[in-house]
Amino acid sequence: MLSLPIPQATKEYRTIIRYYPLSLLKKPLEIHFLLGEYSTISEIRQKIQEQALKAGLIPPDHKELPFIARVKGKSVVEMLEREKFIKTHIEKGDEICTFERISLPEHQTEGHFILELKFAQFRRNYLFMSGQQQICTSRLIIANKAWTVRQLKIEIFKLLQPIIA
After folding, report:
1. CATH (residue range 13-164)
2. Residue 117 DSSP class
3. Which of 54, 80, 113, 130 has its CA 20 to 30 A from that of 47?
């Protein structure tokens, strides 16, 4: 008797993942993906790295893989670091964004932390309460734990200087 395995139908998800370069002058790259049911975060990182190289957003010698985060309402909700299937986030309707990561010197990963920069504008409304409105998607940068507040402000200013000037 001959037995053949029955092929399992895998569901495919069509999604758009935005890649935000470190420079605020460059526009985010929208990458259209056709993801399988069992696509993982590391596969997406590799694909985004390849697309960013093709678009010229990162130099060819850049070895750091981008941050992948789940974003809701222009704010980073959760960093996706653990290796798991991406279908759970897509089914929830979450937006998946990636952020360029700076290269750190060798053996200095313990003295750094991830900082989220939110760009907000104060809006006054006469009918309702006034408040802050977020202008664009927040950005993730790596900051050194040994920096003082002044040094941190200088690094943020260096990031924002091309826009201000």
Report:
1. 3.10.20.90
2. E
3. 113
